[in-house]
Amino acid sequence: MRPIGIPLSAFAGQPAEVRRICCRYGRIRGRCGAVKGRKNGEERGTMINILIVGAGTMGRIHAQAFAGMKDARVSGIVDRDARRAEELAKPVGASPFTTFEEAIREVPAEVVDICLPTPFHKPFVLKAADAGKHVICEKPLARNLEDAREMIEACREKGVELFGHVVRFFPEYVRARELVKNGRIGTSPLSAPGAAEASRRDGTTGMPIFMPAADWFWI
Questions:
Q1: Is residue 63 part of a domain?
Q2: Average model confidence (pLDDT) for the chain?
Q3: Which of 84, 103, 187, 202 could be cross-linked to 76 through a Cys-Cys bond (beta carbons 3.0 to 4.6 Å apart)?
Q4: Quick check: is 216 in a domain?
């Protein structure tokens, strides 16, 4: 299954973090576009407003990625540090806020993008779902399976989409799956024995990124 609205070829040559955000947005764009197009039986624009929660490293990466998409608009930045929120909001034309509640009242948002440390994902996913907003959440979704299931169920009950891991939609992973599925690699008598090895590397230095081994990281 490929991202909705954005061809896989669009990700070629892009830094890993930008590709990941494009995948998340591509999938949620199809959902938002359908909802916006039907409201009150009237045609509406395709611009999607995104509220980013967290002005740290990932918040900056997400904001920059969205700023380069013609049909996405960062409408607000939320961070408890007012200075950081303002510094990130200004270059992307967004409004800065120090609380989620104020931001939801003051700016339009079809999507809430949560770029906070993992322990803070759950409360903000629940808040976004309660507000009827689709959710993009940085990984890992939660530190335990119970919290992850609660977040998923809350979004399901509210009828909103929740998107997290999307690496499986990257072209190289799609291709690897096709090779296994088609019997080119695997245990079939007609296939060659083989194994795929992958590693994440920093987009600037090319050096491997060492990932933590804790089980909760992969949820």
A1: yes
A2: 77
A3: 103
A4: no
Q: What digits encode the pLDDT tens for the residues 147-193?
A: 999 999 999 999 999 987 667 777 878 888 888 888 777 766 665 56
3-state secondary structure of 42: coil
CA dihedral 107, 118, 35, 78 (to 10 degrees): 10
Residue 194 in domain:
no
- Amino acid, single-letter form, for residue 145: L
- Give alpha helix (H) positions in 131-208: 145-158, 171-181
pLDDT, tens only, 69-106: 888 999 999 999 999 999 999 999 999 999 999 999 99
- Overall domain count for the chain: 1
Which of 4-8, 27-31, 148-152: highest mean pLDDT?
148-152
Provide the token pair at 61: 């990466």
Rg, the chain, Cα only: 19
| Burial of 216 from C-beta contacts in 10 A (0-12 / 13-18 / 19+) | middle
Does residue 178 belong to any structural domain of this protein? Answer: no
Give mean pLDDT, residues 32-57. Answer: 69
The confidence score (pLDDT) of residue 14 equals 44
Q: How far, CA to CA in Å, does 151 sit from each of 30, 145, 146, 154, 216? A: 21, 10, 9, 5, 15
Does residue 201 sit in helix, strand or coil? strand
Range of the domain at 82: 8-167
- The size of the chain, in residues, is 219
